[in-house]
Amino acid sequence: MDVDPTVFRLAIFVLAIFVGYYVVWSVTPALHTPLMAVTNAISSVIIVGALLAAAASGAGGEASGNVMISKGAGAIAAAFAAVNIFGGFLVTQRMLAMYKKKSK
């Protein structure tokens, strides 16, 4: 009995959600800012790949439908990565503000 590849990938995705949730919520506050910096760096690499996918061009013919899917997926990935990067900078800014001395 073979498992459908879509079901297999969906199961991996769901497991990754659970693992990611428990990993992120168990981080101590002292490690949160460096973790966000690494996350921003990873997202910047992802956005480069997303922009390359969004700028894909095909030879025409029957592959043009696949090119449109690639462009759409690249645009969506670029948007999600941009939200992640800017959100990470905002969270990092708030975390660093917690360590500043309060003025009287």
Automatic annotation (TrEMBL):
Annotated EC: 7.1.1.1
Coiled coil: none
Gene Ontology molecular function: NADP binding; proton-translocating NAD(P)+ transhydrogenase activity
Keyword annotations: Cell inner membrane, Cell membrane, Membrane, NAD, NADP, Translocase, Transmembrane, Transmembrane helix
Keyword flag Protease: no
Record domain NAD(P) transhydrogenase alpha subunit C-terminal: where: 10-101
Bilayer topology term: Multi-pass membrane protein
Catalyses which reaction(s): NAD(+) + NADPH + H(+)(in) = NADH + NADP(+) + H(+)(out)
Transmembrane regions listed in the UniProt entry: 6-25, 37-60, 72-92
InterPro entries found in the cross-reference section: NADP_transhyd_a_C
A GO biological-process term: NADPH regeneration
Pfam families per record: PNTB_4TM
Compartment list: Cell inner membrane
GO cellular component: plasma membrane
Main location as per UniProt: membrane
Function per UniProt: The transhydrogenation between NADH and NADP is coupled to respiration and ATP hydrolysis and functions as a proton pump across the membrane.
Protein name: proton-translocating NAD(P)(+) transhydrogenase
Taxonomic lineage of the native organism: Bacteria, Pseudomonadati, Pseudomonadota, Alphaproteobacteria, Caulobacterales
